[in-house]
Design brief:
7-stranded mixed β-sheet; 4-stranded antiparallel β-sheet
Amino acid sequence: QVQLVESGGGVVQGGGSVRLSCAASGSTFSRYDIGWFRQAPGKEREFVASIRRSGGLSYYSDSVKGRFTISRDNAKNVAGLQMNSLKPEDTAVYYCAATEIYYSSSSIYDPRRYDYWGQGTQVTVSS
């Protein structure tokens, strides 16, 4: 299996930017689709963005489209999430996840499809 470790979280002012990173080890990174999910207090874990194993296709939730950008570098075994124009409602624990199974675009939003998860990193957006 693959191990995932997120980094880059912290406290940021509203309207600011932060970049999260997901470092993978233990397996061939290009064999996995990568997703970013987030979970706010009292809320269910929700889809943020995903990227196909080749990096050729990406998907975003409506709430982050145009503000967030997902990326990956298979040579470096790293996936990223660039978050711009942050809002207080973006406050959550952000998780990186991976799946080796190639799901349809309708299923790629479902956290149950992802087999491997990082520990999460807290992002807090003030004011």
